[in-house]
Amino acid sequence: MQGVPLLSILIFLPLVGALLAMAIPRENERLLRGWAMVISLLVFIVSIPLWFAFDPGNADFQFVERVPWVTSLGIAYQVGVDGISLLLVLLTTFLMPIIFLSATTSIQRRVKEFVVLLLVLETAMLGTFLALDLFLFYVFWELMLVPMYFLIGIWGGPRRIYAAVKFFLYTMAGSVLMLLAIIGLYFLSDTSASGSGRTFDFLTILRTPVPSVWQPWLFAAFALAFAIKVPMFPFHTWLPDAHVEAPTAGSVVLAAVLLKMGTYGFLRYCLPLFPEAVVAAVPLIALLSVIGIIYGALVATMQRDMKKLVAYSSVSHLGFVMLGLFALTPESMQGSLLQMVNHGFSTGALFLLVGMLYERAHTRMISDFGGVARLMPVFAGFFLLVMFSSAGLPGTNGFVGEFLIMVGTFQAPTLGLQPHAIIAGLGVILSAVYLLWMYQRVMQGPVKGPGGVAPGAGNHGGSPGEADHPVHLQDINPREVMILVPLAIMILWIGLYPKPFLDRTAASVTRSGERVAAITGGTLVAGAR
Amino acid sequence: MATVAAGAVLGAFVVAALAVTEYLSGDTAEPFRQHLYPWIAWDIGGRTTLIAAAGLLLDPLACVMVLVITGVGFLIHLYSAGYMGHDAGFGRFFTYLNLFTFSMLLLVLADNFLLMFVGWELVGLCSYLLIGFWFERPSAASAGKKAFVVNRVGDWGMLVALFLIWSTYGTFQFFGQRTGALASAGVLDDPGRILTDGSVALAIALLLFVGATGKSAQVPLYVWLPDAMEGPTPVSALIHAATMVTAGVYMIARTHSLFLLAPESLVVIGTIGALTAVFAATIGLVQTDIKRVLAYSTVSQLGYMFLALGSGAFAAGIFHLMTHAFFKALLFLGAGSVIHALNDEQDLRRMGGLWRYLPVTGLTFIIGWLAIIGLPPFAGFFSKDLILAKTFERGLEEPWYFVLYGIGLLTVALTAFYMSRLVFLAFFGQYRGAMTAPGITPTQAAMAPEHEPAAAVPAGLSMGHNPITPSAASAPSAHDTHRSDGHDVRDAPGHGGRTGRPHESPPSMLIPLVVLALLSMVGGWVGIPAFISDAVTGGHATGTPFEQFLAPSVGGQEGAAATAGHALDVTTEWILTGASVGMAGLGVLVAAMLYLAGVPNPSSLAGALRGPYTWLLNKWYVDELYQALIAHPGARLASFLAAFDLGVVDGMVNGVARLARGTGGVLRQLQSGYVRGYAVTMLIGAFCVLAYWAFRT
Predict the structure, then answer these.
(1) Do B51 and A507 touch (CB under 8 A)?
(2) CA distance B425 to chain A (A)
(3) 0.90 cut: is pTM over it?
(4) Nearest chain B Cα to A312, which residue?
(5) Which of A17, A98, B143, B454 has its CA 20 to 30 A from that of A68?
(6) Cα diameter, chain A
(7) Reduced to 3 states, what is the DSSP secondary structure of residue A350?
């Protein structure tokens, strides 16, 4: 593998694919879709060697590539992968073919633009995870916004423009401050009079401790950008709107990968760069996380739109991730990183499932359904598995992540987070409440709504819109099974044997928290008990 | 399909029997352990952090559980082949049932707490799936959800206990050489791990018990179990009587050393157990649905098991768990046979005289009845008596246990009464059902129990959760409806309906009944108390054979260390036994007077005691209480937050956006497009810069 610029191929292959797709006539939709599948599968295949060639014992960045870019400003094209980004990169490459496959029916117009935009988005996402230069990171970070904006704005629902603009402006507002902080780090990277050594190189910046006076300000700027992206309570309200309006493919990318950018940012940048500020911020962030867990779950309970329900459940789940990151124990941080991946699979799958239902019935309102399990037993089986994964049932991936987070948070040495862990445990109860209640109303009970005329209920004219027309709900077809099976496998694999995943993240996660641990007096050396 | 499913469980039973035989032929002082693979763990540079491994263990306690689960499980699989034969969801049913058996085995064989928790949650999942098996029926779907959510409340306690265990002991292993162990005395012995703070030990014990109250349906989390009767009857027998609901008992026995660290916790457990036993029994007195009576009976019997645990008599608790598995599975399957015979009739008031039509079911049911009321030499007698004796024994040390003993004794009479009532109403007297039967029609049913007292309860009592008025109680509830094509047979016109005579069930259903009846007769003999066996053999046994067998797991006399030196003398033992048998006889006698002789007439008695009767019929209004105290406020809070999110949190975001737009609107005035305007601005700007440079020092 030495000498092959694996990461660059990974990052730019989708972009090249997008450029070439532009040459395909827009009438030839089959070719466009096929092309997207080929490219995304190819990217996935290219990413597989990362899993095997990655050295789990090494906390340093691996597969590092460096090409000077703007030398006068110390900007370089520098990429590399470590335990923190590895799983997220693989999550992204794994999901893209699935997303394209799901779009075969859900995206019917402007296929060409869709293919191009989604491939560009993949480049941006991979670049964000792999960038080791702050300037490069920022470029990719902002690049993600554009395709997503169009995904919602073009293929979205009735209020798509509102949702797209809100998404764009909200996240943009956060990242502008981050840009200022990045420039600040640039100036702090060499404080000598000449300043000739100033650089955006993350590895160099990492070696240069940030002065205590600057830490709170820079941390706050980064944290705001990331908190909006996560999204943390109370910065979450763009998410339900974006999810509800986005097409299925957009929702899946958004939930599975884009939200992880926030938590990834905290772990990659905030923790090692601003340890003192992080320690000072723990009480606030832990509090907001716990509020998010409970609040998101309670609000999810009352949602009438399935997508909105899943969106609020994301607020709750990402509260867990944030809590684990800021509890700063090896167990909790390992759990958080794993839970990022888990959430990608589980919530991604939930959005795909809701999308399948929507394609058939043209409604996502819970009250429009009933007894779907009778009509779609295979679908119901997958739904059960994914639902329980999301509810953290032992045996599925969700349990491993959530349990590690909570057990780690509980014993956070000096931070006094026991109450947080206990309250987070209540979130586990609530997740069962909102998910099972949805399942009960949609899947169980007598058959009704768009799924067919309820026995003895001829008057269907009450509900407006397309839901008027009873559609016979056909069970999922082989293509849809193909979409769901890989996700189901991952849910069970991580649930039953998470060790290969935890092995690969352990060293880097520990490294990332070391500086903070030095301040709290705790130890992050795993197994030191 | 059924062959595969039942065959798999039979195979499991055979393997279990072989494994148990082999294990018992060796040294049973140490459990047999099998490490499978590291489950939640990671390596950094050769150092492993192990949270939990996948590993199994077999010790005497696990032996008992495994044999009960696979043995009774197989019989119920066999029964189901007949019972569910006409159901459209036949395949799904057996898939769930097999998954359940796997999960339950995992629960009892896991060698660490976290893996046990996997089994613990998976049996909850299966319970959810099987209660809601006929998910098109809203009540079934709702009951399944209720079961899962209430269980999760208990699991929350257990989760917190697990956090505490991890931060205190640093291991989840039950047995082990490396880091000490939770189940063995290792926890106590290892000086590095002795708790300096006793309140932590108490917290762990009580939180674990919270988990047990959820799974094993104890006060205050028992409310899901009666509703769980929405599931098919074999499910009620297997999951909600014989195996899953006893998981809490097993868990406490498995980790009894953690409880012994905080003896106060045992008092709590015993008290809750005794309260549950008597409380559920009172509700069982008046229920008219045959499965509901049995459900409350299960709650009550589980209370006995916790009373045993609370008295430090862990082996006695497991003993009752085993005998209860035999006779309660028998009773549920018998009830299923009755329901099957009567085309899904579950109301006791529309039964009667059934032994004539269902001789095998009737005979085996009567054996189950004798076992549960504790008549010697049936199984229930030995286990229940052991529990009561142990409670009494504990009372010599702590007088509070005398109170618990009294409650336990009272419950014996109540149990005998409600079970006799059930048997007399269903199998004796005249048939009162709607099916064609010689002689009698429902309206003529002279002995019909508690038939509609004169006046209904005032409507003001209604609290939104539809409490039952005595007259409404006659509405059928929670019926097993066999679905042939997805529709309730009752809705299907042209179906045979309630015509035809009650018919005895097919052999596949009767064989399990006969086997379980045999077990209910002789199953208790492994626990013949020392004072009886000594009288026969003239020896000096310490504890029953069953207790001796379990000693390596639950510590035998060491487990009841608190009562050491207080062994009861033989006379006391005989008196205690006489008391409990006498109480049982009293219960049977009263029931016989009411329901066989009709003196006094049950309906007029119910009318005379309308207040207490309605109170019990409505199950002490606990469901309504929870609805009012938890569910409704919770829903209101969630609604409020949903509105708050939309109005305030998002409103602020949009407010900022509007502010920005408004500001932009103001600032737009500056962009006038007039060159002279820009020129003036530039001039002012230049002036300012110059001024700055000029006055800079």
Answers:
(1) no
(2) 33
(3) no
(4) B642
(5) A17
(6) 85
(7) helix
